[in-house]
Amino acid sequence: PLDPIYPIVYLDCIVIKIRDNMRVINKAIYLALGVNMDGKKDLLGLWMSDNEGAKFWLSVLTELKNRGVQDILIACVDGLKGFPEAIAAEYPETRIQLCIVHMVRNSLKYVSWKDYKAVTTDLKRIYQATTEDQALTELERFSQQWGEQYPQIAKSWSTHWVNLRTLFE
Question: Where is the signal peptide (predicted)?
Fold first, then answer.
């Protein structure tokens, strides 16, 4: 059986290519990695599906609960639509932390090569801040510096702030 409480569980999905009946197709591999009360990582499970979706994540979370996981304090996830709601269905008290790597990657999709290093440095000031107030100040500074050229970046960070702020609590 799994531990009853995990302070942090990382939930992510990767798409891999597999050979099926002489064809190469994409499959989604769901991964749940828990950090236990001793600070050690436990692979809670791997699941395979045709694609990633919140509905399948709900079945994964239901299985984890059935296998003995009573509580998850923080779930670190990507920005998949419906994911926070799927988590709340099984673990209503769990705090959501959006994955910073996913946020940065999604932000940098919009950035021209000449601005890449400067934008990366300014984003780093947000997520490496020591307090939420400092992070919000850095986000405002980022908005003033880059908001005209890359409005979608600051907007995305502001929109998702409720699930980014867990990092500072």
Answer: none
Q: Are residues 138 and 153 in the same domain?
A: yes
CA 138 to chain CA mean position, Å: 21
Q: Beta strand pairing status for 23-35 and 5-20? A: antiparallel
The answer to which of 11-15, 61-65, 80-84, 147-151 has the lowest mean pLDDT is: 80-84
Please provide residue 17's backbone torsions phi and psi, each rounded to the nearest 5 degrees: -100, 135
- Looking from the CA of 130 toward its CB, the CA atoms found within 13 Å total 0
H or E, element range at 17: strand 5-20
Domain residue limits at 133 = 100-168
Number of domains the chain is built from = 2
Q: Give the domain-ending residue among 43, 71, 98.
A: 98
pLDDT tens string 124-136: 999 999 999 999 9
Does residue 137 share a domain with residue 82?
Answer: no
Are 46 and 74 part of one and the same domain? yes
| DSSP track, 87-132 | HHHH-TTPEEEE-HHHHHHHHHTT--GGGHHHHHHHHHHHHT-SSH
